[in-house]
Specification:
This protein is of the alpha/beta class. The protein has 2 domains: 229 residues, Alpha-Beta Barrel (TIM Barrel); 27 residues. 41% of the residues lie in helices and 13% in strands. Helix 2 crosses helix 4, helix 4 runs parallel beside helix 5 and helix 5 crosses helix 6. The longest helix is centred in the middle third of the chain and has 17 residues.
């Protein structure tokens, strides 16, 4: 009889404990069942069902077009695969900005229909009311500051944020507001490493960086980027752990060749 080993689920509380202990938090994105199963099995702490699905899965240029229902579809696929990781789901553009009642409705819909464990929202003090309202429903919220891709048209560019003193001061202020509002963690995207480290030291909640240096409490990358499936995109912060683009292209070419040359299927590969 095989003894089923109880898997200890990662919780928001555990992430805060990890920060206190000085243990770094690992986070990657997933948008489908198969990939999420592999990532979870490898032992990742947090899986982000990112609105980057808009780029990676749907081929849009920005994250703006993805809808709440698309996010729910991706998130529920991921949740069905996961035994251990904390699953955080992005609230997509237009589902929470400027209206805390709508923000709450969106967050409840995501949690209810996908089974995700928490939501992530971009922005600082301008979304404070929405965050507090979502928390009243018992839904954990992860913040996101720095380069906020949903505001791409406001910034007009994906360059590093908060290099100027005024913007850096505002970011520090926003981080404290997010902590006070009750966020359990914060993503900092593409900001100077020194500033990111200052933010991580000045607040008690975990800070997870992407392009924010090593002085934060954890790291997140887009899985398709770190696996080298995407090959057009090469920001400085990206480490490619594999070159799947080449390996997969090779495999596909070989398959085509084998089919054309009648090598596939062979004697052993038929009934």
């Amino acid at each position: 009889m095989s003894v089923h080993k109880e898997v200890k689920k990662v919780t928001t509380h555990q992430l805060q404990e990890m920060k206190r202990r000085g243990e770094k938090i690992s986070m990657l994105t997933a948008y489908d069942y198969t990939m999420a199963k592999i990532i979870d099995h490898a032992g990742i702490d947090v899986i982000l069902v990112g609105d980057s699905a808009s780029n990676v899965m749907a081929g849009y240029e920005t994250t703006l077009p993805i809808t709440l229902d698309h996010m729910i579809y991706h998130a529920s696929s991921v949740v069905r695969a996961v035994d251990r990781a904390l699953v955080v789901v992005d609230l997509p553009f237009g589902s929470y900005q400027g209206n805390s009642k709508e923000a709450l409705t969106s967050a409840i819909k995501i949690m209810k229909e996908s089974g995700g464990h928490a939501v992530k929202m971009e922005g600082g003090k301008e979304i404070k009311d929405s965050i507090e309202r979502i928390l009243t429903a018992g839904i954990p919220v992860m913040g996101h500051l720095g380069l906020t891709p949903q505001s791409i048209y406001k910034f007009g560019t994906y360059t590093v944020r908060a290099k100027e003193e005024e913007e850096a001061r505002r970011l520090m202020e926003d981080a404290k507001i997010l902590e006070e509002s009750g966020c359990f963690a914060l993503v900092l995207e593409k900001i100077p490493a020194k500033l990111a480290e200052e933010v991580a030291k000045s607040i008690s909640i975990p800070v997870i960086g992407i392009g924010a240096g090593g002085g934060v409490d954890g790291q997140v990358l887009v899985t398709h980027d770190m696996l080298g499936m995407t090959h057009e995109f090469s920001p400085r912060f990206l480490r490619r752990y594999l070159n799947l683009y080449e390996s997969m292209t090779g495999a596909f070419e070989q398959y085509i060749k084998d089919v054309k040359s009648r090598d596939f299927p062979n004697e052993n590969e038929q009934y």
